[in-house]
Amino acid sequence: MREVYFDNAATSHPKRNGVSAAMKYFLDELDCNVGRGAYKKAFETEKVIIDTRERLCSLFGAEVSGEHAVFTANVTQALNTVMKGLLHQGDHFLISGLEHNAVARPAEELRKRGAAYDVIPCSRSGILDTEALEKLIRPATKAVVMTHASNVSGNILPIAEVGAICRKHGLRFVLDSAQTAGYLDIDMKAAAVDALCFTGHKSIGGPQGIGGFILGSGFAGEIAPLIDGGTGSISDKIEMPDFLPDKFEAGTQNLPGIFGLHAALEAIAETDMEAERKKEERLTEMFLEIIAGIDCADAAGGGGAACRCPIVSVDFRGHDNADIAQRLAAEYGIMTRVGMHCAPIAHRSLGTFPQGTVRFSFSAANTEAEIAYAADALREII
């Protein structure tokens, strides 16, 4: 049986060239810590870490020095760090109607702690209501925390427009780029993004277990650390350092993960990203056309491939979505993700709650032949 991987929105497969080799090199040849030892292997490791920070700032158009790039275990930890460090009792903030639980659950926890939030409406087509956004702003509103693209429908939200609104009203803009980092060009300065939270294992093509956030100039002082502990710096004091990135990087880092991320960023620098993106758009458009030809199949969200990431979630009316996903895997070797995708707010906005969807998510490693194969499989199952 063939194996077809259509679950790239969960994690990319295969990883970019050099990722596993870089991680193996660190573990086999270096395998040390940084900021703790004054020897050659530690310095070599630190050099890679510094270069990774600088590459991240460059990738996301952050006109700040490399220490503004902070490493975490994943984008969820990054969002928790920024949100819980910034927002406190009495504060108000906004999130979108297409959020993943990486934003929604911290928001709900902050509500329990005395903060308040509202959800900016999104249509069933995945369009953010920016007029409603401005109407929801209160005197106590401090920030907008928003995904760049839905992990359910792939619909891309207008971050430049939202950033302009935030600047107009003096709000901080925190962006969840889980589905777009490494796929779309992101310019933090142009979009007025104050904190960009990313993960390394999706479109960037690095390993799981490494993510982080990049802070715009002057923002770090407004955020308290989520975790306190050893940093290897100013070790004579029991207070956390107040400088970047140490302020937010307590404990031993995932150094094999950083080496893998560094290799992925090197690969991106040598890749025609526009050509890669256009291929993914073609595959997405091809699949959308196929779904439109199946009577019982409804694609979540609206618009074509140009206004979404390479993600198509499908609700098969009159059928059990879980059964279809299971049969795709068991009988055809087609790997998807079914259910709520950790995003109940998004499913409510898109009209796919509580049944969920079968999500197909593509990468440049996929082919038109695989799309056609999936189409045949779906027609046979239906």
Tell me what you see in this structure:
It is a single chain. The protein has 382 residues and is of the alpha/beta class. The chain contains eleven helices and 13 strands. The strands form three sheets. It has a seven-stranded mixed beta sheet with strand order 2-8-7-6-5-3-4, with helices on both faces. A four-stranded antiparallel beta sheet has the order 9-10-13-12. It has a two-stranded parallel ribbon with strand order 1-11. It is globular and about 70 Å long. It starts with a strand and ends with a helix. The mean pLDDT is 97.
- Compute the number of strand runs: 13
Derived structural class: alpha/beta
Average pLDDT rating: 97
Strand order of the largest sheet: 2-8-7-6-5-3-4
Number of helices: 11
**Low-confidence runs of at least 5 consecutive residues:** none
Specify Rg, calculated over alpha carbons.
21 Å
How far is the N terminus from the C terminus? 20 Å
Helix content: 25-40%
Which sheet architecture does the biggest sheet show? 7 strands, mixed
**What is the H-and-E element order?**
EHHEHEHEHEHEEEHHEEHEEHEH
Strand content: 5-15%
The best one-word shape is globular
